[in-house]
Write a structure and sequence with these properties.
By secondary structure, this protein is of the alpha/beta class. 46% of the residues lie in helices and 23% in strands. Helix 1 packs across helix 3.
Length: 292
């Protein structure tokens, strides 16, 4: 059984806020402080520090979080597996997916996997890369497919698929010949919300060209991928989206890929899980079947 002080520590790691951790755990903020103080005495190390108003983990705190996250997750999963075997119920699979990865890349293979394994019941959560990694750390997800950048040290991960980020416009809006990147800067750019993996990949690709979102004539943030596609198809501007997310619209002629000079923008969709789990073989088997 997981110690309540370990639960508190992991919740503070997830929220990076004592008040929010207290609210989630339904305890008082002083109790949270007492639990963290106990953990620091127990391990003889400072686990958190303040960076201005921001709470951050110390190196010792990171090491402890990584180890305890895996232990907490494995304990939960072990209880579920033992209960399923004893009662003959289905095995729970808790899987996270960023929006593009979930809707356009992993959904169909996961559906085929579940059809082949009726003994498995999947719970799927959508979120940003950082939200899903926080849920992995908290032990509320077994694995996740993410499209954004992340610190790979605390996790085991595999590249599930390499996807191309393409510039799209309304049909006929721009020439089909390869264009210099500078030729699209005078247009309105539609981008996803901050925290979106798609946006982060674009921002890094722009920075490599000594550009930024502000280099465009105008930038409009839209949280919905479907709304972005409608706006672009109506000729209001351009957007950079994963090719898998606009494949149908391109085939139907609703959108056109803008061919740009230079190297393509590519990024891996990663399959991520906690490091050193006793269920590593299970995760490897899932990855193998979803990749086939």
């Amino acid at each position: 059984m997981q110690d309540v002080r370990v639960q508190t520590f992991l919740e503070v790691c997830r929220t990076m806020n004592y008040t929010r951790a207290a609210e989630t755990l339904h305890i008082t903020q002083p109790a949270v402080s007492q639990h963290i103080a106990f953990m620091e005495r127990e391990y003889d190390a400072k686990l958190f520090r303040r960076d201005g108003k921001r709470l951050v983990l110390t190196p010792a705190g990171m090491m402890l979080r990584n180890a305890l996250s895996t232990m907490a997750h494995d304990e939960t999963l072990l209880r579920e597996r033992v209960s399923a075997l004893a009662s003959g119920t289905r095995i729970e699979l808790r899987i996270g997916m960023t929006l593009t990865a979930g809707e356009y890349i992993v959904a169909a293979p996961l559906a085929a996997y579940l059809a082949e394994h009726p003994e498995v019941r999947a719970t799927v959560r959508s979120g940003s890369t950082q939200e899903l990694l926080a849920d992995l750390d908290a032990g509320t997800l077994d694995c996740a497919f993410v499209e954004g950048y992340f610190d790979k040290e605390p996790y085991e991960w595999d590249a599930y698929r390499t996807e191309r980020l393409v510039c799209v416009c309304a049909p006929g809006k721009l020439p089909r010949k390869p264009l210099p990147f500078e030729d699209i800067l005078g247009m309105q750019l539609f981008v996803r919300e901050e925290g979106s993996g798609t946006r982060e990949v674009l921002e890094r690709a722009l920075a490599a060209r000594n550009l930024s979102l502000s280099s465009f004539a105008d930038t409009c943030q839209v949280d919905s991928l479907d709304i972005i596609k409608v706006f672009v198809s109506e000729g209001l501007g351009i957007s950079f989206l994963y090719e898998a997310a606009v494949e149908r619209e391109i085939e139907e002629g609703a959108l056109q890929v803008v061919s740009l000079q230079g190297a393509p923008i590519e990024h891996d969709i990663s399959f991520v899980r906690l490091r050193n789990s006793v269920f590593t073989k299970d995760a490897a088997q899932l990855f193998s079947e979803l990749s086939s």
